[in-house]
Amino acid sequence: MDIVTLARFQFAMTTIFHYFFVPFSIGMGFVVATLETMYVVKKDDRYKKLAQFWGNIFLLSFAVGVVTGIIQEFQFGMNWSDYSRFVGDIFGAPLAVEALLAFFMESTFLGLWIFTWDKVGKKLHLAFMWLTTGGSMISAFWILAANSFMQHPTGYVIRHGRAEMVDFFALIKNPQVIYEFTHVISAAITMGGIILAGLSAFQLLKKRNDHDFFKKSMRVGLVITLLGSMSILGTGDMQMKALLNDQPMKFAAMEGDYKDSGDPAAWTVIAWADEAQHKQVFGIQVPYMLSILSYDSLHGSVKGMNSVNKQLVKEHGQKNYYPPVNTLFYSFRIMAGLGALLFLVSVLGLFFTRKKKPILYNNRIMLWILGLMTFTPFIANTAGWLITELGRYPWTVYGLFTIKDSVSPNVSVASLLISNIVYFLIFTALAGTMVYLVVRELRKSPENAEYAILSEDNDKKSTDPFDKEEFGK
Hints:
Blueprint: H1 3-42, H2 45-78, H3 81-115, H4 122-151, E1 156-159, E2 162-165, H5 168-172, H6 175-205, H7 211-246, H8 248-255, E3 267-274, E4 279-286, H9 289-295, H10 305-316, H11 325-351, H12 364-372, H13 376-390, E5 395-397, E6 401-402, H14 403-406, H15 413-443, H16 468-471
Antiparallel strand pairs: 1-2, 3-4, 5-6
């Protein structure tokens, strides 16, 4: 293996693992905020117990997300120093705002939320949770603003071989920002909802005594999943259409089209490409469908990869501009298919848990299906990330800076192999710990004061070492 391949593998490994927990944390934060809102509005203590119980799962995802994010940060200095020099002036502002404002905002209010149950007013305590959730979404916005520059550079000039910012607001107003942000947040909310519903389904399969608790959790989770999946489909459609102009090679690769489509354009359902010969081996097509998906019309053509490659060679010189076509083609179908499946499952789940005939709660097959849906967002999000990053090959910053130019000049194959192994072991340990802790939390009874972050029963025996009674003992 060469240095570029090992560096890319390491970045992919660390980013994919980190991205398991970013939408997990944002989504569960939204779920907990929603549950506590229902407690404040309805004045029903059951929703308070829901917020506290699922709040523990949220805290675990937040903690692991922070650790994996720190590990990922090392990538830029270790393996991608030339890239960091090129975009440092651009990335400095959004990443500084993300760290100094958004992250501190979410971590501060999260601490207040954890330690002030029953010590401040209900509405103020609820505000802490919404500010935590808002902070995590703002944090995602600034990260995605930086990533959007890599997809569609704006607000810069090239000086002394570096990209330098000349218009900060152009960076924020980059159209890719709104497409990425809305799609990522929609996916995160959907993830939180289906994790809530899916884990509740697993608990109902165990025939525990707290069925009512998990029935209510499942119902709320399915509603959140429905709303989130509807938003995913809409924002995903907008993002796809934007790629027609911003990154036509990525768009054509996702559709598996080497040749221009013609008018009207047919959509390829399933295919396989010979990437070495730049041709499609076989494909099953649906007439008119690509025109409808791309232009909301029965007419319209799409450029194929061969035409786009000729254009890129003319603009940027002789290089291989073809991305990994089969990976992009099937990643897109996995992502879109799972998004549609989540929508369908949420609709059917709500129908089969309606008051008149709630058959889902006692149907083991349905519960298993819903439980297994817990894992689908992790697969769909990974597929989406692969599309976003692999689709702009060979660029790190589209049209400006290549992957080959981005790698640190002083790294070696040996150092990359060692760090890859170390990171893999760390991630395996973190994943095992996360699964163990989540399972342990789920085994606890929601009615048991032992589990709670700071439940009402804690007032009987303070856990604060500076409490007058405790400190005096």
